[in-house]
Every structure is written in C-alpha cells, then in structure tokens.
Amino acid sequence: MTDHTHADTLRTPIVAVLGHVDHGKTSLLDKIRGSAVSEGEAGAITQHIGATDIPLSTISGMAGELIDPDDFDLPGLLFIDTPGHHSFSTLRARGGALADIAVLVVDVNDGFQPQTEEAIDILRRTGTPFVVAANKVDTTPGWNPQEGEPIQRSMEAQSERAKSMLDENLYEIIGQLSDAGFSADLYWRVQDFQKNIGVVPLSALTGEGVPDLLTVLMGLSQRFMKEEMAIDVAGPGEGTVLEVKDERGFGATIDTVVYDGVIRNGDTIVVGGQNEPIVTEIRALLQPRPLAEIRTEKQFEKVAEVGAAAGVKIAAPDLDKAMAGAPVRVVRDRSVDEVVEEVKAELAEIEVDTADNGVVVKADTLGSLEAMANALREAEVPILRAEVGDIAPRDIAVAETANQDEHKAILGFNVDLLQNAESDLENADVKLFKNEVIYQLVEDYERYVEEKQRAQQ
Ligand code: GDP
C-alpha cells in the first residue's frame, strides 16, 4: 500500500505511444479511448486538445481485479494523441521529453523493425521509462478470444499450438530487447518495472490485454513521478506548444500541453516566437466539448483554468508568430523580463548553426528543426537559414540568393508549401525537397547534389 500521509500531489503522467508503422499505435490509442468511453459512469474520459485524459476511476473500472485504486496517488494517465517517435522526440519540456513515460508498440508477428530500433534509441537517450505492448496477439492461428479476462489467463486458455506459437514470438521480442540492452520479461514476471521492461501481450483489435497495459503504466508512472518529478501543481503554468492554428473567431491560437502548474484565463504568458519571445494576455482557454456535443456548431468550451497535465487551446493576441515545440510560461510572482529571459535561455538550448551560404531548412517544430540541423551537420551540408513553419515566398527568395547552385534548395520536414508560394517556386531556380522522414530528406538532397556534380563533369 502507498503511504498516504505525505502531502505531495502527483500530476497526471504524460504518455506517448511509439513504434514501427502499421504495428498498431493508432489502433491502440483508439481502443484505449473507446474502452474508456464505454466504461461510462466510472468517470469517462476527458477530451483535451492534442491529448486524452483517462482518469484513475475509469482505469480501475476497466482493469477490474488487476488494480486497487487505493494503491495510486495519480489522477490518471494523459495520452498524447499523435503517435510516433517524431512527435515524441520533438516535443520537449525544459530540455527533456514532454512525455514522462512511453508505450513501445511491437507487432508480435513482425518483431523489431527499423522504427522500433529508432524508438528504442530515443527512449534510451532520453532515459524515458517504457513498457512494450506486444500487439496483435489475436492473429495467432487458432486464437480464441477471452474478452474481459486478464491477458495472462487469456493466454492460458488457448490451445497448446496457439500457446507455443505466441510464446515463440513473445520470446523473440524479449530477446530483441535484450540485444538492445534492456532486460525484459512478460509483465507478470517483472518485480521492478524500472529495472526490467514489462512486455504486455495484447490486441488493439479485441481489447485483450489493454487493461493490463494501463495497470502496468500506472505502476510504472507512480514510481517514476514520485522519484523524478518535482512538480508544483499550484504554481505558474508551464507548457509546450503542439501546434499553431488559426481558429475562426479567435485568430491564431496555440494548442498547448501544460506539464506543470496552472494556467488561468487572463494570465500574462510568454511564448517562444519566431523572432523573439511573445508576451501576451490570454483571451480564452478552450477545450473540446464533450463527445456527444461535438457536432454542435460551437466546438470549444471556454474554461477558467487548466492544471497540469492537460491539453488546452490558448487564444491570445499576437500568437501568429508562435512556434510549435516552443515553451509557454505564465508570468506570476515574477517579472515579465525574468520569464522572457527564461524562455530565451530555453530556446537557445536548441542549437542550429547557420552559415553565410547553404540551404534553407523549414520544419514543423523546434525539436524537428534541431534534428534536421544535426542530420545536415553530419552530412556536411551547410545551412543558410533554418526556421519553423510552412514554406513561404520569402523562403524561396532567400534560397535564390545562395551563391552555389547546389545550395539553391529548400528542405522541408513535415511542412507544406504555402499556396501563395507555389508560383514563386515555379518561377525560381530553387529545388524543393519535402519529406516526413529526416534521413530520407537528407538522402534525397545528397543524391540531387551528386547528380548535379556528375552532370557538370
Ligand atoms: P500504426 O501505423 O502503428 O498507427 O498502425 P495502425 O493502428 O494504423 O494499424 C495498422 C493495421 O493493423 C490496421 O489495419 C489495423 O487494423 C491493424 N491492427 C492494429 N492492431 C491490431 C490488432 O491488435 N489485431 C489485428 N488483427 N489487427 C490490428
């Protein structure tokens, strides 16, 4: 049992879902949301901007005998809605990852794949505790669904043949984790989830094993949040911008995950901006209406305050130059200047070296811009200008000023070419590269340079 005498308040842990494409990240998030909604009365889920909150009462309703809610001080789990290691590694909080813990989804038939390896590297580098969801157990030949049963019992109820096939696949994954330097085991054999990675066999399709996963996540985060997180839940709010979006009636707004403290309507905030920190006053804090009402005309509900951890849309003047991935800080008990300096210092940590000559780089978040800059440095490609945001006419004009032909190029990571820049691009001697995978973008550019050099010889 937990010691309830201490006064620490633990905030909801932020959970990210990672894994190889098609291994079931989206399905798992959908299943968690769907099962939580059908749990109904027990607390239901709260929708957020960019994240879904599953309260402890709902988790314990789903997990039944697996969980004793009295064992937990945590209010629940907040899942970041966008899966994938791109969003994981580019969303930060105070230099670390925004997510506190992670679920690594691995298709039980497919085992480790390139993006699984990449995700593991990122989790290792950031020191993020994680659990492995060994997904798609229902595809085991002869699988006999046992909905509502804990997965261990489900597995015992299968035919000998199905059991041995599944075991073989699961031990393959455990072996691959071990090759990657992590000692791992099926979750019911793990005593200390910080020393050993728990593997939860499950099906995002039937839902078997999903309550087990939530239980393991609760256990893992309880320890982690107690030991690692010094959080002042009542202090001035701190968050990270997920996205800058124009919203009818509100102008430019920022979708933000608040990871510490409280943000209130009317607060003065400092937000990382494209040229300098933006100081502004909150006009409205918006959250989606409950699911049933979502089709009514007004999609958002105004709220007076939001406490960590939560997703919220912030409407305020001057947010059009805000950057995805940048910090958001409430000014309270301190001077504006002090907070501006803090935001500047945090932005300065994100290093992008530019030169007098080189390519133009555009990316969707600050973190991805930094990742692009690192990849280009390794490939020895100089950067003339690097910015967060879609590709605008100005970027094309800047790229055209490059002295060397091979540098008259724009590399866009996870961004679009703005409509008003289309004709500029057609008329300019500038080559545009766009991709959602960093190394492919760099490879495409390198191949282009090689071809250009070969043609000149
Ligand atoms: P993502 O790319 O990792 O987000 O993967 P998706 O969630 O889009 O899933 C990829 C495909 O696998 C889809 O066709 C899903 O329906 C299917 N899928 C996901 N989870 C399961 C599962 O547990 N069982 C089965 N049979 N299919 C699944």
Automatic annotation (TrEMBL):
Domain Tr-type G: 10-226
Alphabetical keyword list: GTP-binding, Initiation factor, Nucleotide-binding, Protein biosynthesis
One cellular component term from this protein's GO annotations in UniProt: cytoplasm
Binding site for GTP: 19-26, 81-85, 135-138
One GO MF term: translation initiation factor activity
Superkingdom of origin: Archaea
Family under the similarity heading: Belongs to the TRAFAC class translation factor GTPase superfamily. Classic translation factor GTPase family. IF-2 subfamily.
Free-text function comment from the UniProt entry: Function in general translation initiation by promoting the binding of the formylmethionine-tRNA to ribosomes. Seems to function along with eIF-2.
Entry protein name: Probable translation initiation factor IF-2
Organism in which the protein naturally occurs: Halorubrum ejinorense
Shown stretch of the complete protein: 1 to 457 of 597
